[in-house]
């Protein structure tokens, strides 16, 4: 894969989809700043990736919070110093809780919006400013969700944050295209990750996902998402911007059952 840059930042890269993306970008020739909130996990992931690629690509750990502008700025400084000015940004960090609208705590709504929507906004702004100043092209891939299109009970804040991210990305693509910066969205469906496992999503709803997924599997793997991200970061995608690519086995065609109903019944 002919990536447009050999320096990348991946947020939420310590596990799950983010780790899969970091690994794939390194396999395709990029050095990666592994950005995450938990220092031990971030450092462990960077060590594992460096052992895996044995000097052919480099992973640099960075512990920070995407909600904090100072952490975003500092991560760009570290990436530029250690790896060169990043030309690739993957906003993958995300979170979710499960509650019906009438019971959803205000603080849960604020946290999900801050991580899933404000974080990518802060990163895109800082990343694009650095590239525009340097007169360099770049690419942003924002990791959204099937839930930007197919909503479900119990995830009002999550669905809203991902739909907001999709539209934010379109505006960014429109504004930044003149500077040679492309912005696209990848929208995964059910993927086998620690976040999905923590709410019992695959275990409880595997049969439902299987019934609603044309390609006949209950879920995908991080590598399924990572391959699409790498393509969008490459020269073969040079004429693609403002686009959303669903990576869900076709699940968006058939829609979703209520997460809240199924997971609530399973918990009883």
From TrEMBL:
It comes from the Bacteria. InterPro entries: NAD(P)-bd_dom_sf (IPR036291), Sc_DH/Rdtase_CS (IPR020904), SDR_fam (IPR002347). CDD domains: SDR_c (cd05233). The keyword Translocase does not apply. GO terms for biological process: fatty acid biosynthetic process. GO terms for molecular function: oxidoreductase activity, acting on the CH-OH group of donors, NAD or NADP as acceptor; quinone binding. Keywords: Oxidoreductase. It holds the Pfam family adh_short_C2. NCBIfam families: PRK07231.1. Belongs to the short-chain dehydrogenases/reductases (SDR) family. This is Beta-ketoacyl-ACP reductase.
């Amino acid at each position: 894969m002919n990536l447009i840059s050999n320096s990348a930042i991946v947020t939420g890269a310590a596990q799950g989809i983010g780790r899969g993306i970091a690994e794939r970008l390194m396999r395709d020739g990029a050095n990666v700043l592994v950005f995450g909130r938990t220092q031990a996990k971030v450092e462990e992931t960077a060590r594992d990736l460096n052992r895996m690629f044995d000097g052919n690509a480099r992973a640099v750990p960075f512990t920070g919070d995407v909600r904090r502008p100072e952490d975003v700025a500092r991560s760009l400084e570290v990436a530029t110093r250690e790896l060169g000015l990043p030309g690739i940004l993957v906003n993958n960090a995300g979170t979710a809780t499960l509650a019906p609208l009438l019971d959803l705590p205000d603080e849960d709504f604020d946290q999900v919006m801050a991580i899933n929507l404000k974080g990518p906004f802060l990163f895109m702004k800082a990343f694009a400013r650095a590239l525009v100043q340097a007169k360099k092209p770049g690419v942003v891939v924002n990791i959204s969700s099937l839930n930007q299109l197919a909503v479900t009970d119990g995830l009002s804040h999550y669905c809203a944050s991902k739909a907001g991210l999709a539209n934010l990305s379109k505006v960014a693509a429109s504004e930044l295209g003149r500077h040679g910066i492309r912005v696209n969205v990848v929208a995964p469906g059910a993927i086998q990750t620690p976040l999905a496992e923590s709410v019992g999503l695959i275990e409880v709803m595997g049969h439902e996902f299987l019934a609603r997924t044309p390609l006949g599997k209950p879920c995908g793997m991080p590598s399924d998402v990572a391959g699409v991200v790498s393509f969008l970061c490459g020269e073969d995608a040079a004429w693609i911007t403002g686009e959303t690519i669903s990576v869900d086995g076709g699940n968006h065609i058939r829609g979703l059952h209520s997460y809240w109903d199924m997971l609530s019944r399973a918990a009883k």
